[in-house]
């Protein structure tokens, strides 16, 4: 176990990650803010789904998700069609325009990382990815039904946190 001072420094560094997130947000086009990018990303990763599932994956209230969905639907990036199992519900799916927008978001985000991390080696970037994934796993599996520290298998995940949970468009 690391010393308490190391955890304090980790907390400071994670707070400072907000600057990175703001830099990424500035790369998004004005017509596609972060919430819209998250909708497109999750529909791309998980396929068509109901609004309630999308809200669960985004870990936000249904009313917030509904506003994001209305925005992306208004731009023609998704379509909403009746759910054959429940005509009161709608199934959300990406359109060709949504796929194109997501490609553009991915390009912009990747360009920001490439520009800002140009002095990092491929190994450094890989190590950061590995450690961030491990950090997410540590938080994802510590709840009820979770695994013990050091024994994560991926089977313990419950709730919206999983490998595909992200609010970034890549």
From TrEMBL:
GO molecular function, one term: DNA-binding transcription factor activity
Record InterPro entries: HTH_MarR-typ (IPR000835), MarR/SlyA-like (IPR039422), WH-like_DNA-bd_sf (IPR036388), WH_DNA-bd_sf (IPR036390)
Region (Disordered): 147-170
GO terms, biological process: response to stress
Signal peptide: none
Domain HTH marR-type: 7-137
One of the Pfam families matching this protein, by short name: MarR
This protein's name: MarR family transcriptional regulator
Originating organism: Streptomyces cavourensis
């Amino acid at each position: 176990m690391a010393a308490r001072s190391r955890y304090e420094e980790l907390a400071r560094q994670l707070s400072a990650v907000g600057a990175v997130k703001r830099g990424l947000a500035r790369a998004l086009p004005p017509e596609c803010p972060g919430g819209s990018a998250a909708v497109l990303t999750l529909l791309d990763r998980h396929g068509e789904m109901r609004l309630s599932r999308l809200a669960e994956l985004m870990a936000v209230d249904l009313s917030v998700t509904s506003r994001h969905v209305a925005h992306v639907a208004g731009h023609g990036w998704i379509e909403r069609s009746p759910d054959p199992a429940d005509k009161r519900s709608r199934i959300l799916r990406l359109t060709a325009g949504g796929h194109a927008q997501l490609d553009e978001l991915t390009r912009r985000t990747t360009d920001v990382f490439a520009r800002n991390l140009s002095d990092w080696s491929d190994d450094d970037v890989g190590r950061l990815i590995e450690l961030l994934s491990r950090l997410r796993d540590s938080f994802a599996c510590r709840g009820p039904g979770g695994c013990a520290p050091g024994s994560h298998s991926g089977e313990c995940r419950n709730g919206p946190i999983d490998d595909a949970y992200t609010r970034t468009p890549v």
